[in-house]
Amino acid sequence: MDRDSMYQTLYRRYRPIRFSDLIGQDHIVPALKNAIKTGRLAHAFLFAGQRGTGKTTTARILAMALNCRQRVDEEPCGQCESCVSIIKGSAMDVVELDAASHTGVDAIREAIVDRLSFIPAVLPYKVYIIDEVHMLSASSFAALLKSLEEPPPRVVFVLATTDPHRVPPTVRSRCLRFDFHPVRPSAIVERLRTVLKLEGWEGKVEEEALYLIARAGRGSVRDALTILEQVLSSAGDRITTDLVQSLLGLTESQTLKAILSALRQSDRVRLWTLVRDLVESGRDLHQLCRDLSATFRNLLAVKMGAPAEDLNHSLGELAEQWEEGELIRLLRACWDTERELRLSEDPQLMLEVGFLQMVRLLSEGRRREEEREEPPSRPASIPETLPAPADETVPTPIVQEGAEVSRDTDRLWSRFLEELKKQSVIAYSFFIYGEPVEVKGGQLVISFRRAFHYDRASDPRYLELAERVAREVYEGVQKIQPRLDRAAPEPQVGTAIKSPTASDKGLRPSEELLTNLFEEQTGEDGGRQI
Q1: Residue 350 phi/psi, 5° resolution?
Q2: Structural contact between residues 443 and 480, judged by C-beta atoms closer than 8 angstroms
Q3: Which DSSP symbol is given to 320?
Q4: With contact defined as beta carbons under 8 Å apart, do 496 and 502 qualify?
Q5: Order of strands, edge to edge, in the sheet holding 479-484?
Q6: 0.85 exceeded by the pTM?
């Protein structure tokens, strides 16, 4: 089998040979064509961008357009002798150099510097294409610098790189720079359709499978064509979504929908079972987190009314079941879970905990929404028709003597203590002995029956912390006012009231001892808290 009849990969066989064949670089093509048309051609170009976006291909097309004698509207014909020689790589005056394998100064001097003085042998222009130019050594850049600054007539340099920041500023400043953008998935899908039609697969591929391949390419046309070639080698008579998901290791849409449904219903057992099934089937949990993040992103985009051309259309109905705030919280939680999976020795456990955390976030969000919607309850002992004095502000009662404590008050106070405990166990140990009395003038009045707890709660170290928590729990509260109430508690029915004993009178020294102990642990400046 001769070289011309050998099999070529799809990305080589369908490499663009005209400016009009390039996709996703509409900001570059008109500029290059206009430069050729007007004759205002730079002597050095710097093409920067991620892999597979057409940097080297554009450099070849530019070389063909400069040397084609039959070009029309600055487009190379692709059929003349000069175009064919450039396409085959046999043109003497178009030199392609891989900087990764020619990093030394001797290689650059031999391949470029020493040959610049010779005029083009056959073609009108001599073009040097240096791929991955950032791989050159510092001495190689120094040797190339003078040639870039003042090249001989009819010599054009095209430098291509995926990392322009590693190119010295002295080189970048001597080049006309073009940044190649990642190609949109929709544009990649159109190119895949064209290739499949030419390969005889028209009408034998599912639409969703093409979008999966395009998204897996991540903006690279070459990567997408490589994946397509892998799919074609494994497909029978039709390219299906399940086949693409299996080859790429992606999570099936049915599994993603099952996870979304379990999260929606707060079904912890179902989520636990799904993780177990995925682990037993050998799935990559890191890929699952990435696919789940992409699903949340797609749902959020649909919810905000973003264009749906690059989205999974089957998830459109699910978007109606979620609120934007919920999707944002889930997306952040999924990112955190994926990050922790990389560091965990037990990915299964970490994913299970991550799902439980997502359920908790959803439950807390719904509870906050319900608290905002519920009207504040009124104590039963306060008549609704009671007129308020004209010169006084009516406080919002929280606990009033002889009145039944409302359920809303208990919930807020319990939540306050729970959040305070997360911040400081010591502060929590004091305020747990307090009792909310009222909200008045933006102040939450808390009553304490023992002087020790009152003194500790009044300490600025703990009071400021409690006020920050109160502002998050109680609406309109800015300050906390501790109050000492030495009144004895109401006696229980059938319980005798004991008179003070000697042991009761000895409580004060114990309280002072405990106070000193806390001060020793926390320090005089309050710098350490539990």
Answers
A1: -65, -40
A2: yes
A3: T
A4: no
A5: 396-397, 434-440, 443-448, 479-484
A6: no
User: 314-328, 367-381, 492-506: which has the minimum mean pLDDT?
Assistant: 492-506
* pLDDT at res. 316: 66
Q: Are 158 and 130 in contact (CB under 8 A)?
A: yes
pLDDT digits (tens, 9 = 90+) for 153-194: 889 999 999 999 999 999 999 999 999 999 999 999 999 999
What count of other Cβ atoms lies within 10 Å of the Cβ of residue 429? 16
Adjacent-strand bridge partners of 44:
157
Phi and psi (nearest 5°) for 498? -85, 145
Helix (H) and strand (E) counts in the chain: 23, 9
Question: What is the H or E stretch that residue 470 is in?
Answer: helix 460-473
User: 283-295: per-residue pLDDT in tens?
Assistant: 889 889 988 998 8
| 45 three-class SS | strand
Residue with tokens 């083009």: 120
- Residue whose entry in the numeric block shows the structure tokens 């000193």: 516
Q: How far apart are CA 368 and CA 115, in angstroms?
A: 74
Six token digits for residue 478:
């800015």
pLDDT of 76 strictly over 90 = yes
pLDDT of residue 522 exceeding 70, the answer is: no
178, 176, 110: which is closest to 144 by C-alpha? 110
How far apart are alpha carbons 352 and 56 in whole angstroms? 46
* 147 contact partners, CB below 8 Å, separation of at least 6: 112, 113, 116, 157
- CB atoms < 10 A from the CB of 424, how many? 19
